[in-house]
Predict the 3D structure of the following.
Amino acid sequence: MIRIGTDIGGTFTDIVWVDDQTGEIKADKAATTPSDVVQGVMAAYAKTGVPAEAIGQFIHGSTVATNALVTQRGAVTGLITTKGFRDILEIRRIDRPDEHIYNIFWEKPKPLVPRRRRLEISARMMFDGTVLEPVDEAEVRVVTEKLLEAGVESIAVCLLHAYADPSHELAVRSIIREMDPGIYVSMSHEVAREIREYERTSSTVIDAYVKKPVVSYLERLDKTLQEDAGLANSPLIANSTGGVSTVEAIGRAPIQMMESGPAGGAIGAAYLAEKLGTPNLVTGDVGGTSYDVSIVVDGKTLLATEHDLLGYTAKVSSIDVRSVGAGGGSIARVDTGGRLHVGPSSAGADPGPMCYDRGGDAPTVTDAAVVTGLIDPSLFAGGEMKLKPELAKTGIAVIAEQLGLSTDETAEGILTVARNNMANVTRQTLVGQGHDPRDFALLAFGGGGGLFASEVARTLDIPNVIIPRHPSTFSAWGMLSADIVGSFARSYLRQMPQLDIDYVKRLFAEMESEAYGLTDEAGVARDQVTFHRSIDCRYTGQGHEVEVPLGEIAIDEKLVEILPELFDEVHEVRYGHKMPSKQETVTFRLRVFGSMHRLPLVEIEDGAESADDALVSTKQVFVNRAWRDAGIYDRSKLLAGATISGPALIQEPSHVTVLMPGDVATVDTFGALRIAVGNE
Amino acid sequence: MPETRTVDPITTAVVHNTLLTAAKEMRETIQRTSFSPIIYEDRDFACGLLDADANTLAEAPGLTAFMGTLSPGIKRSIEERGKDEIEPGDIYCTSIPAFTGSHPADMMLWMPIFHEGRLFGFAASKAHLVDVGAKDPYPTDSTDAFQEGLRIPPVKLYRGGVLDETLAAVIKSNSRAPETIWGDIHSQIACFRTGEQSVQRLLDKYGFETVNDCVQEIYDHAERMARDAIRQMPAGTWSAVDYCDDNGIDRGVPVKVGVAITIDPEAGEVTFDFSESAEQQRGPMNAPIITAISCARMMGKILSAPDSVACEGSFRPIKVIAPLGSIFNAHDSAPTNLYGWPSMTAVETILKALAADFPDRFPAQSGGDLCGCFRYGFDQVTGEMWVEANIEGIGQGASAFADGESAVVHIEEACSRNLPVELEETKDPEIIECYELVTDSGGAGKFRGGLGVRRAYRLLADGRMISTLERCTSPHAGVAGGLPGGRTIGILDSSIYGEGVEFIKTPDQPIAKGDLMTIVTGGGGGYGNPLERDPERVLEDVLEGLVSVEAAHELYGVVFADDGNLDGAGTDALRASRMHV
């Protein structure tokens, strides 16, 4: 059987296919077709030449959900909420983002539901589920009728304290359904069953807003794959939590597709961490406009429970990806005070860097890499695109003039500033979570991963860099290693000694049964299903929680005794201290893993330590402020055990790995490049 | 044209970006390790890196009003104590307002960073500690500095890496929450280690001299940017007067805030002169001069270079005048617990002075307050204390180009957050009956001010309250014919005080089970004549419920047909008749 992974990027749609019997992996790419991305997916599939009947699984990652937010082209959405609170969505948490603290004109992103479509009902519940005011059916009907008259296509329902007891939201939904069986409904207790009304409302509204575009996109993709291409099964979709979901499951909670793009890389990183015996990895994914960082600790991808999606808050478990505006298309400029800046503005893919010769008139990081000789103009994007080095040089020369430096020094300087920005976001991500960069290896991928990795690692004292095989299509490859993964949560606020363990058992049982629903739907056998349970806890009075993994601990009376100590321990590791205060539980979480085919990692042929057979030529590159001879190697000819010392360039289609003076790369048994970062 | 330079622009960019990241890492460390919500949720702190002369090198985005205070406070300490005594491993602390620029609850700490035996600079932080032994949890009627909490002059809390146990014991024994504040002080110290690591790596990599040269270039660059911007501005003096409601003791007597801003394009300088402001008050509405400096720096930064990060160079062109003995340069013995409010009102006064002539830099006045109200009490059964203090969003002023944003925290506390209703109801004996935008609270104008909010608390148990509300009686202003936004309103429906009783600042007083406390926050001022507002936008506001049909008619001169659509001809006629009045 052949399994296929596809990942839609801004410029290219990547495709990777693997033969489960032989373990053979191939990769290719086709141009992304922004007006109808399904076409790009089909074009990429056509390049594989794999017949439909040979396909066992088709896994897909896409930014369709995010794009609906970017372009503000979601469904016409309405909100039904508790009386007195329809403006929670707009009041938000009243703070300005960091980068706008001096911006006295700052405006919030426009609410996805305007005020006139945010309607209130008098049903009211307290934090413990006590009903102050029951649901008034007639009132719900009036409110729903108003929304339907206003032409809404999707309704978000978020009532105060619904995390404690969903019965009011369920009652509202059944009335809506009765009045319009076809309308999309998102309920807060299903999207984000957690305390804090703004975050829950915002998440529910995002979910409702993107549901229509996501569902219609997936339906069309599914239909095209089955009817036009003749696939037997529906595709699986990369979700935000580091796994895949069925089309149906994403359709019920499309917010879980928000990080579908970067997810593939993180999934692949966690998988490699296990296979390569490097449990702690920090990833560096270099695209056209941004540098994305995620962390794998002890073989597990780190998740965050709250995310900022283009200024909108989503309180859902999802891979913790941090980004900085530094990529191949990042623009270099000199401000009026004479300071060099690189990014965050980007020339993107169109017009792109000046050397693309598509009308770009701002020098970029890619232009700098061409001028210094690190990117070979004839090999870019697998040779499909011929770059114009003279245009790159013209652009960099303008910056050089402004800085009073030579063109070569300026080009290297632009790369240095870009790498430093990448190093800074990496360090902030690691240190911010209490990690020491020296305990990690840097896994670099994406089109520009190998161009920057060794310098980024050197800046942070990260001792080793890993460049996987097929680095430019790594995210698509990563999807092929995914399990069916789902996350569930229930808020239950209690002082630890007062925990009602029967109630806790019921919460987990509920979540387990929902989880089995997911894995059953995907056809995963029950014996292939595992659960991870955890509890978000805090010291009474604190406003933020710490997730305490339960591991193998049974859910019984003993938990009440064990939990306080367990929480103290986790808190101490993460924050450096524990407190004598009372402790309480806030949210109970269950993650489900339904094991799928595992991706075989094929060993490559052993060879000599010398890499001379792969040496193509020698050319001059400008590194460390001088033109130096660098060996140019063809990665496809490197055998396991081969060793290369910098300065050197290791070429493959769509990617180059730069070894700086002092770096030593060794090819491991799986064909990955392991770079021991030199001290220069 | 680039000037002659001694340092490489590439290295300068790398050094600067790395220092800024280090400051952000320091902030994450504090947020991660602090004990109390006032720090990790309200973000009532600031931290950053300074050079050997205590000039501001890199600050983490944080409490805007705190950010400009670290440098002058440490400078003053160095002036008084000299540099010779500073040793590796020392950590200084102080809570005296004359050094910290705020009230004793704000503890400032700093640690020298040495490289190969030479003093490179300091890591510093200032954070609000929940209790430092003031006469009440948050006095609004203190009459001298000694009622507001423990006063620690700048002294070494750590000497050569060793904690001064005596001082530590004194600090703890003077707090109602000793473990919490000690934990928070430690989180402030933890962030120094984070910051120092990054600085040491830079110094190791590039060497002391090169990094220092880069630092000077970072300052010079920021100064060039700021002065260039000021050189493009018109020369002149702009001034305005505004008022705080009262000083907390003399209830109902307004406190004058007068600021004159002089722009000297030739020198490339801006001077903020607070001389027209009231004399020092006998209630706690006084500020140390460092508060005035910080306020001027913040507004000067917004005026000259709002898009870039701040450092010493950004502040060089900004001058401050505040006579000793006034509310912006109070004597050391003066009560200053509410120091933030004169400063906030100064921000509003500066907006009033400049918004009309600098439309691309400043909007109209905002609601002008944090609208904070403390509620606390003791659980009947357990005897344990509960306490809550909210801050709220206000309407922001409209600009010459856009409507003001609704429900955003005052720019002085730009990163602070409100308290979620669900958490509050879970923690405290209260039901929140509403939390919503207030129709018609945005000042009318060609561009409308942002709206304030209303939050109403029903008490489920007896308790006590302290109010720090401001901008309840003082007049607000719009710009260029725009109307003022709504004012702050506090109302009690109470079995003790009666129905519909308005309150402003109140010292500690009881409230009873069943009482309803409603806080309405102020709106932003309008910009331009409301009769010039696009009728379509007025219609949109009416459909959104932001402006009432009545206000649309009365203030904006917009007439609607019976079907709710715009009556174009009617509107034109009504507006024409109003314009000619």
In short: Confidence is low (pLDDT under 50) at residues 1-5 of chain B.
